Amino acid sequence: MRTIIALPKSKGSVPSRRRSLAIGKPRFDPRRTQQFSGPRINDRIRVPEVRVIGAEGEMLGILATHEARRMAREKNLDLVEVNPKAVPPVCKVMDYGKYKYEEKKKQREAGRTQIVVELKEIKLRPKTDDHDLDVKVKHARRFLEEGNKVKVTCRFRGREITHPETAEKQLHFFIEKLTDIGQVELTPRMEAKTMICIIAPTQEIRARIRALVAKKAREMEKAEQEREQHEHEHEQHEPQIEG
C-alpha cells in the first residue's frame, strides 16, 4: 500500500503546476517563428566575407559581405549563397526570383518526362478455369502495354500445395500468351504457399512509352509557352491609367 504525504503550502506560494509551467516555458525568440528554406540570400548571409561570382559568371574575388550586398543592390539583384561549405562561402550575384522560377520550370519538365513503372499483380488459384485465365491474360496484356510490370501469383490452400505443377503450368501459360510484348524477369518459383513469376514489358514497348511521354511533354511545353506569350501580349495591350 502506497502512502501519499501532502506537504503544507506556504502563504503566498505559487501552485506547483503554475510554478512548473512558469519555469518550463521557453523564452520567446522571434527568429524561431521564421522558417526559411533554400539558400541564404542578402541580409541572411552573416559571415564577414565571401567569395563573389558576378552576374555574368565572372570571378570578383573575396569581398566583405556588406560590400558584396551593396554591389548586388546597385544592380537591382540579390546576393545568393551557392556554396556555404567553402572557406569563405561562395556567393553569386543574381536575380533570385528569376532563378527560383527557372528551377521550378526545370522540375516540371523533368516530371513530365519521368516514367513511373508500377508492379501490377494478377492473382490466380490452382482451380482457376480456362475462361478466367484468358480474362486475366487480357488484363496483364493491358498492364504491359502501359509500360508496367506484371506479377502473377498463384496461392495454394490446404492440400493444393502437394500439386505445384498445376500452378507452374498456369504461370507458363501466361508467359507464352504474353511473349510478344513481355519478357520474363523472374521465372516461376515458390514463396511460402505461393508460386510467383514477374513479366516485364519488352524494350520495344518501353521505347514506345518513352516516345509517347516525350511527345506529351513537348505538347505541354508548347501550350505553356503559348499561354505565357498570350498573357504577355494581353499585358502590353492593357490601357495605362495615369494617376
Folded structure, characterized:
With 243 residues, the chain is α/β, with parallel strands linked by helices. The chain has two domains: 42-95, Ubiquitin-like (UB roll) (Roll); 107-231, Translation Initiation Factor IF3 (2-Layer Sandwich), CATH 3.30.110.10. It contains six helices and eight strands. The chain has a four-stranded mixed sheet. It has a four-stranded mixed sheet with strand order 5-6-8-7. The longest helix is centred in the C-terminal third of the chain and has 35 residues, at 203-237. The model is unreliable at 16-23 (pLDDT under 50).
Strand tally is: 8
- Total separate domains: 2
**Whole-number radius of gyration?**
33 Å
Q: How big a fraction of the residues is strand?
A: 15-25%
CATH architecture descriptor of the largest domain = 2-Layer Sandwich
For the record, what is the CATH homologous superfamily label of the largest domain?
Answer: Translation initiation factor 3 (IF-3), C-terminal domain
CATH class of the largest domain: Alpha Beta
Q: What topology, given as strand order, has the largest sheet? A: 2-1-4-3
CATH domain topology of the largest domain: Translation Initiation Factor IF3
Q: In terms of structural class, how would the helical and strand content be classed?
A: alpha/beta
* Overall pLDDT confidence: 81
Which helices and strands, and how do they pair?
Elements lengths: L15 H9 L24 E5 L5 E6 H10 L3 E6 L6 E5 L1 H18 L5 E6 L5 H16 L3 E7 L8 H14 L4 E10 L2 E8 L1 H35 L6
Parallel strand pairs: 1-4, 5-6
Antiparallel strand pairs: 1-2, 3-4, 6-8, 7-8
